[in-house]
Specification:
This protein is an all-alpha fold. α8 packs antiparallel against α13. The longest helix is centred in the last third of the chain and has 38 residues.
């Protein structure tokens, strides 16, 4: 009896951490495909219209699960409206619009590499909040970051205009991930998703109207509609749920280490689908990134880590 009690007390933490890492990996893989989609649609669908229809589709998918919960928790949402509006602006309205804008002038592999800067910002937010990252996680973050810098440094010439858009997108996503850590206590995960998707879509309405008036609409074909359905259903509804759940379980810093896998996934997908080049030097940098992810995503030794706290308090919130 004396042996069984402590084991029952300790098992939820590693299970929650493993589940959180799995959710972060799922979201990262799915979002890698959305970068390839943004690149592929760069010449056929205006960036704002791409973002608007993405979130219309995502809202339709999430509504049956989240609308009723959001209505029941409307008083809590209204009480924390400032937080929800900021999360909607950064994570829904602005972030994906910037990614789509970048896709018009930047290769998908570059987009993934630049977005890999966002975990650094996530870690800085965590540290500023007083959360210790630990030596192992810091080493993993720095190792993966070195692989990303080496991978990005292989390009010739100066940055493309889209690279600057992607830098802004990375800052938005890192800030959005930090906001998830401070999601109002008691607000359900699907209610939060539905509310942010709804508010973000409403925020995009004026830009959508301007884009239609200035650029005109795009032609609905299988080559445009199917990618929009992918980013709306999979990259938005599924991936955002998985990422929000990962943040609740392991925190932005630890999930951000897994996010370093994104340039690897994007490079492989763009090589397979868009014929973008991939050489041995890039493969070596990717191996460095993978090593950093394995090192940084491993179990923390300190009991007061973000993952430990998430296992106790965050598991029931998403």
């Amino acid at each position: 009896m004396a042996v069984a009690a402590p084991r029952t007390h300790l098992t939820p933490v590693p299970r929650a951490a493993a589940l959180g890492i799995g959710f972060a990996a799922l979201a990262t893989l799915v979002w890698s495909g959305s970068f390839v989609t943004s690149r592929a649609l760069g010449d056929s669908v205006p960036p704002v219209q791409h973002a608007f229809w993405r979130w219309v589709v995502a809202l339709a998918v999430v509504a049956p699960f989240g609308a009723r919960q959001a209505w029941r928790q409307r008083h809590l949402i209204r009480r924390h409206l400032g937080h929800t509006l900021l999360a909607s602006l950064l994570g829904v309205a602005v972030y994906n619009t910037l990614v789509n804008q970048a896709g018009a002038t930047t290769p998908a592999a570059n987009m993934g590499m630049i977005m890999a800067a966002s975990p650094v910002l996530m870690a800085l937010y965590e540290r500023a909040a007083g959360i210790r990252l630990g030596a192992r996680r810091t080493a993993g973050l720095l190792t993966a970051c070195a692989g990303v810098l080496l991978l990005a440094g292989r390009g010739a010439g100066g940055p493309a205009p889209g690279d600057l858009w992607m830098i802004a997108a990375a800052c938005c996503f890192g800030s959005y991930s930090a906001l998830l850590r401070r999601r109002p206590e008691g607000l359900g995960g699907t209610a939060f998703l539905f509310t942010t998707f709804l508010l973000g879509t409403v925020m995009l309405l004026p830009a959508q109207a301007v884009s239609l008036a200035v650029q005109g609409g795009f032609t609905p074909t299988p080559g445009t509609v199917l990618p929009l359905l992918y980013v709306g259903v999979v990259s938005s509804a599924l991936a955002f749920f998985a990422w929000n759940r990962a943040i609740a379980l392991v925190g932005p810093a630890r999930a951000g280490v897994v996010y370093y896998l994104q340039p690897v996934c994007v490079a492989l997908l763009s090589w397979a689908l868009l014929d973008e080049p991939l050489g041995w030097a890039q493969a070596g940098c990717m191996a460095l990134i993978l090593g950093g992810v394995v090192l940084g995503a491993g179990p923390a030794r300190a009991g007061k880590s973000a993952a430990g706290r998430a296992g106790k308090s965050g598991a029931g919130r998403a």
